[in-house]
Write a structure and sequence with these properties.
The structure is a homotrimer of 318-residue chains. Chain A is an alpha/beta fold. Helix content of chain A is 36%, strand content 14%. In chain A, helix 7 (186-197) links the parallel strand 7 and strand 8.
Amino acid sequence: MSKLNHFLSVKSTENPLELADLALSMKNNSGNFKDSRKGLSLCLIFFNSSLRTRLSTQKAAFNLGMDVAVFNVGEDGWQLEFDEGVVMNGNKAEHIKEAAPVIGSYFDIIGIRAFASLENKISDYQEQVLNAFVKYSGKPILNLESATTHPLQSLTDVVTILEHKKVARPKIVLSWAPHPRTLPQAVPNSFSEWVLACKFDLTIVQPKGYELSEEFTKGATISYSQEEAFEGADFIYAKNWSSYTDYGKILSSDPKWMIDREKMDRTANAFFMHCLPVRRNVIVSDEVIDSAKSIVLKQAENRQYAAQAALFKLSEME
Amino acid sequence: MSKLNHFLSVKSTENPLELADLALSMKNNSGNFKDSRKGLSLCLIFFNSSLRTRLSTQKAAFNLGMDVAVFNVGEDGWQLEFDEGVVMNGNKAEHIKEAAPVIGSYFDIIGIRAFASLENKISDYQEQVLNAFVKYSGKPILNLESATTHPLQSLTDVVTILEHKKVARPKIVLSWAPHPRTLPQAVPNSFSEWVLACKFDLTIVQPKGYELSEEFTKGATISYSQEEAFEGADFIYAKNWSSYTDYGKILSSDPKWMIDREKMDRTANAFFMHCLPVRRNVIVSDEVIDSAKSIVLKQAENRQYAAQAALFKLSEME
Amino acid sequence: MSKLNHFLSVKSTENPLELADLALSMKNNSGNFKDSRKGLSLCLIFFNSSLRTRLSTQKAAFNLGMDVAVFNVGEDGWQLEFDEGVVMNGNKAEHIKEAAPVIGSYFDIIGIRAFASLENKISDYQEQVLNAFVKYSGKPILNLESATTHPLQSLTDVVTILEHKKVARPKIVLSWAPHPRTLPQAVPNSFSEWVLACKFDLTIVQPKGYELSEEFTKGATISYSQEEAFEGADFIYAKNWSSYTDYGKILSSDPKWMIDREKMDRTANAFFMHCLPVRRNVIVSDEVIDSAKSIVLKQAENRQYAAQAALFKLSEME
């Protein structure tokens, strides 16, 4: 497996299953990689809040012996301008054309969390922030969840599926579920493209109007009925997202879409997955998430090995 | 001295004086323990502001060679839900039943600062937040000041008393003093139970209505007159707290309770102590805190050795 | 070159060029100093936002093997009182007379960022905050930009000038430029005193009323015409600042003072410098900052070596 130049989406990898295998080997024998990146440094830039990503990525860097600096844009610093040719007399104190190369001149790898605006579909789906760091920083970029993808989460999800699957090609169902707030499409987009790249059998089920961009879902079975979709499923992955077509809108908050015991009973004794944080008794009932088939904590635990594998391959000598 | 499973209160220790002796030995020859916990990691979770605890605990971990991640709940992440069975459609994005085990899956020790609400006496005195981390994280918990206790401060206080006491069993007076804001009872509760566990002679003096819970003060002499209480004292420990019985209320802001030179003159040339931060000329006069008998900075300095001893015993192999 | 006791301004150094040479030698062969300060610790205290200083100083400490703790006053902790004899019953929870020695008891070097209030000229120019840490902390203080100076930036600027100058004594022009917000005089004050201490030829050009304090500019040529000042210049250093005489006021926002191509054409093919963050098309046109003669990113890159040299000399054994 060759080195990673960036880790932006599944397209950054030659073979997602190989990267998942590396993460698994690190989990099962983490000592081998211990301190293997000593002397290298990582900067984590957060435009948005984070718990799992923030802590697991720091821990992954510690495991490899890397130094880590964490920067919260807006709290620690100031707002950045991304548009070209602007007369900067408003609220934004610095242009990305300066900020990115400056950070790149200090650190060996830069992690970026920058959620979708959910207001401007074009700039969100062009990955304006992430790509500006790729373009201007001069260093490998690690996506900590961008406007349209969350590859560290998806790599974790693949690792967790590999650990639990009992058939060669499991049936995986990505199910929309209700949520009180407007959420991005990054996690479901990313889960879909990774699962499909791994050649698993993917069904996506959602209410009408919640179809994701075909850029990410081509090859998946599209369904509008949880009853039908859950039949024979090996893994149920629950997630809310806002509409892609009616961009950033909440079209439904129908509680009937919550994942409960009755729905899980239609599956082939499926595992329950979610990326966390999860709204209990809104996305999923207590009964399901607290059941023996719930592997949400395994997914979260694997985040540190996913991050460790990505950091390792991003810092490999060519 | 056996290993600590958690460090929640004096009850977590078999012998508080032995732990204080360990902290003192680390202070006097810190090199012996240097880097002895290399490869281990600590996560510090702050639900509330912190200066001394934040910095001294990081420094203690550095001394032991540990890696440290710091997380400010609310700024870096989001609000957590602690109640069971809730339909989570409000402001809280994640349940402690997920957040705690996830953090526990990354780090070897978890430090928690979570002050009293001062609104709900029952959940405060049940230590809802601290105990949820104990219950769900699966890792040793280090109390960085909880709703009802602050054992790192109390251990420091015992260390500092051991360094300064001139008689085997000094007379120690814990005195209430006025303050413009509503403060928790954690520091005085904790000081009381540690001093009593060390078999020192403790008098607590406060205005009527400010009596602390007997759970922490049983064995202390209770007084309502600073004039009487200060007679013959070897140590005066000043602190404000809000009412326990009329829970979270300020019943007095009488400036006559401030510690001044005249009151200190009644003591047996007592040392002056306070946990800091302290409101000068509200809690204590400049003259007293700036005097040669003030050991508030010694207390603060000893925080790093108290934290170092606690981290060392929490990470000891069984 | 003898050790630095503090790094507060050019006056903290015996010879600013020697310190710049040390930074350059670290840049060109950073391995020699690698981990040379292992076991030492640095605390960075931010009263104000920071990107470059925050990240470059952390990186410099990592290079030297130091442990680093970062503290945002107000977010992580609480407001500090600096005045003497105050009855502290307002918003400030702790006096610098406690906070500074406590931090000093944990860490080997303390970095402080504390901007000018721009309201109280006397306390700003007395460097109330910075000097309180010098007075009370008991440890070497590293100025991360204070009310009146920014020596890490100026040291970087000298390093960058040394790397680029083509004549022994280059003509350097510090030019005021417009800005929508009220900015301190720290960067131009500091740049002026460093450049003059290095015996370079300095011209300062600004609108009437924007003259800096002579404490910093004595020896510089003072001009009010960019046309005249830019003639024959080797380096143009652009910066906005608010009025020193009419303290903290914006007297002009005249866009004619922006640095553009036409003005740069009057120079001797000068390099363009700015400390960043910079407002594009307000301070400087895109055309100039994006030109081959712009060395703003070199300045920023050199920040880590300037910080590394300062930390190295602050922690030298006597």
